[in-house]
Write a structure and sequence with these properties.
It comes from Rhodanobacter umsongensis. This is Glutathione S-transferase family protein. By secondary structure, the chain is of the alpha+beta class. It folds into 2 domains: 89 residues, Glutaredoxin (3-Layer(aba) Sandwich); 114 residues, Glutathione S-transferase Yfyf (Class Pi), Chain A, domain 2, CATH 1.20.1050. The chain is 53% helix and 7% strand. The protein has 9 helices and 4 strands. A 4-stranded mixed beta sheet has the order 2-1-3-4, with helices on one face. α4 runs antiparallel to α5, α4 packs parallel to α6 and α5 packs across α7. The relative contact order is 0.18. It binds glutathione. Glutathione binds next to α1.
């Protein structure tokens, strides 16, 4: 199995799961700044030109939530409960909420504070964060109420929904996300950090694939 990744939030979800479940995968870091996601070889795997992408035998898959579900089915992990439709629906609700609302709201904070410096994309621009703050606070309120009597997003245990929602939010302290005012969100994020694969998802061993690394 091969996982193509860059050091950013969507690959983070998948790499954390790979570590957490002890999956033996070749993790191939793609050189974003050299245009590695836009080479014909990479676009043939993922026409979106984004990471992550997974290749497992005949199966090529993109979208981190789909890859996470695939990895759980393959390993029999109940972080995606393949045999329990009611639980799948509960998880799916939060995956949709994350992709439609939550990611949009935390995105500017994560981009300005984490991605821009990591990939040398220029100076911080606070305007999008300022504009998004009221929406982020509104959504943090929804999540905070949900987590008031829960340790996890769905099914009373760790699922792929936790990794989905936390992949940008986990940077909340350095990214100025206002979660100090939402104690159940902060508690949930801090407890996730006790999971070794989540706290440090980045592969120790990475394989270079020159055909994909250069534009
Ligand atoms: N919804 C996709 C998001 C994929 C995505 O946007 N990946 C970003 C990193 S988080 C990327 O590859 N960015 C590089 C680019 O846009 O050039 C998923 O969950 O896999």
């Amino acid at each position: 199995m091969k996982i193509y990744w860059i050091r950013a939030q969507a690959p983070r979800r998948v790499l954390a799961l790979v570590k957490h479940l002890g999956i033996d995968a070749d993790c191939i870091e793609v050189d974003l700044r050299a245009g590695g996601l836009k080479t014909p070889a990479y676009l043939a795997l993922n026409p979106n030109g984004k990471a992550p992408t997974m290749v497992d035998g005949d199966v090529t898959l993109w979208e981190s939530s789909a890859i996470m579900a695939y990895l759980c089915v393959k390993t029999g992990s109940d972080m995606w409960p393949a045999q329990r439709p009611a639980e799948q629906i509960e998880i799916l609700r939060w995956l949709s909420w994350s992709d439609t609302h939550w990611s949009r709201a935390v995105g500017p904070f994560y981009f300005e504070h984490v991605i821009k410096p990591a990939f040398h994309l220029g100076e911080m621009d606070r305007s999008e964060m300022t504009a998004m703050l009221p929406e982020l606070e509104r959504l943090a309120g929804v999540l905070d109420s949900h987590l008031e009597r829960r340790d996890f997003i769905a099914c009373d245990r760790l699922t792929i929904a936790d990794f989905q929602l936390a992949s940008m939010a986990c940077e909340w302290r350095r990214a100025e996300m206002p979660f100090a005012d939402y104690p159940h969100v902060a508690r949930w994020l801090d407890r996730l950090m006790e999971i070794p694969g989540w706290a440090d998802p980045w592969p120790l061993r990475t394989t270079a694939e020159p055909a994909l690394a250069n534009a």
